[in-house]
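Chapter review: from sequence to fold.
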Amino acid sequence: MLRTNSLAFRLGALAAIWSVFGLLAGILVLSRVFRDSAERSFDNRLAADLESVIAVTDLDCKGTIVMPRPLVAERYVNPFSGWYFQVSSTTTPYKVLANSRSLWDQSLKLDPVATSALRMGYVTGPKQQQLRYVERVVSFPAADETDEGQKCVGQDTKVRIMVAADMKDVEAEVASFNSTLFWSIVILGAGLIGAMVLQVRWGLAPLDRVSQSLTAIREGRADKLEGPFPTEIQPLADELNALVSHNAEVVSRARTHVANLAHFLKTPLSVIANEVQGQSGPLAETVARQVQTMRRQVDHYLARARTVASAKVIGARAEAAPVIGDLTRALSKIYTSRGIHIEKQCPEGLSFRGDRSDFEEMVGNLLDNACKWADSDVSVTVSAGRPGRLSVVVTDDGPGLNDEQKRRVIERGERLDESKPGSGLGLGIVKEIASLYGGQLTLGRSEAGGLSAELDLPAVERTA
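The token string follows.
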């Protein structure tokens, strides 16, 4: 679904609004033009019928209006057909001198104004319907002689001749046109909006590909934006690729500096530790304790600095199976004298979304800690947890830890037994590295009674 703050929604909404307003304006204009045309055609027809009535109207010797040749149009013959004509006097009170058979015994009310020019207007019909009329004042000369050839003397007579008709046919024609026009515009509008939506989606598709490529880079499924892009988008893709490369280069430099710093700090500490080794006295003991403390702090903060840098790497990923395989082989050799058996379960295709060395350090610390305290068996299981998550569970059959000991180990990094080698920061470092990647470390009790350590980490989602 389109979001209201998306470019596709804005472009689509703007085009749809303008299309709707444009089509509505088109409906109004076309309807008005058609109505005007239909009314003009109707008026022209009335004017033509008026001329026909004038042509068949005459004046006899007695000054009576006669129609020697009746108007034969059927619409003026059928009673109340809606088409009427009427010949009236020009003096008040107006007197009907002749009318069409369609008027039957009715008459049309006349406007008080009479003129020889062609007039148009509306009048109420015999059935109280609205009629459109045209009329003109016409002067008829008196007849010179009768049909028998006798001379007759008369005066010219002016009469008002009106032709009127019901506009229901015009209204029906306009309504039919408006209905056809409306549904045609609706279909056209739906087609235009559909074409506009397709155009917007097709036009913005390259931006979707950029978004999908960036997601793939962030999840570690790609290391740069790939594929052809339009001319307008290609510079953006090039800049993003350059940014990704620069980010990786900066992080690589930071990791190198951290490694150099670790070397420069650890070497003098090793020299000092060697100098006081075997020495007795308060000074030697104090120096030995402080050197050990400094080593632990250096290990802690250098590991954190390195992890912070690597956690920012876009597209970093590490295949889980090779790392687990390397660690179990190395630790099996180291603890072979104690008869420690390490069982692993890690399907192919699972990947940690982060730096390989950080994954090695977290899992390596957990396995090394398990091997130190296990009686004989250690297991590591890697599986896909929730969508986008990776679960790593390391268990042993050693003595395990109670709740207070777990808290002291995780939160304070305390060493609970000085007899085992190491700095005592292993689980604390694992927790901190995991949290920097948005994961967490959970300690529990294994089925064999020992410690169970579970890592919940971000994973690279598998693609079909």
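Two observations follow directly from the output. Helices lie at 7-56, 168-218, 234-276, 282-311, 320-334, 356-373, 403-412, 426-436. The two ends are 24 Å apart (CA to CA).
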